[in-house]
Fold:
Amino acid sequence: MGLILSGGGARAAYQVGVLRAIARMLPRHAGNPFPVICGTSAGALNAAALATHATRFRQGVRGLEEVWGGFTAEQVYRTDALGVSARAMKWLSALFLGGVGAHRPVSLLDNRPLRELLGNLMRFERIEEAIASGDLRALSITASRYTGGESVSFFQG
Structure:
């Protein structure tokens, strides 16, 4: 049996409610009931979080509840006036100067806060530990590349 978590920010938050219901049906210290976990985009974040807590499924779901329960835009991208203005200036520079002397921006908003959040919350080395212990058979996450539009899947098993 496997778990597939689709993309979409609001869907990822909804997924946590469904995962909480599943966790409540399991014994208190149960491991991961899904030997294979797959996720796309925001669902990939949930998938990776579950994989890092494969030995204690309920604890992983509780962590997801905490993150999604207090989620703000500032955790994904810079929303302060200085950050947005600086990024807008890069876009204008690239638009009017053809990127001369400036690094071409990929996105309008700076998403470094999301990278920081993920780095602080997830212990990715636990994925390999979960696979080695048999609590997880495989994790597959898929991301889209904004600049080219193609999807890339990462697999560990």
About this structure: The chain is about 50% helix and 15% strand. The chain has a mean pLDDT of 82.
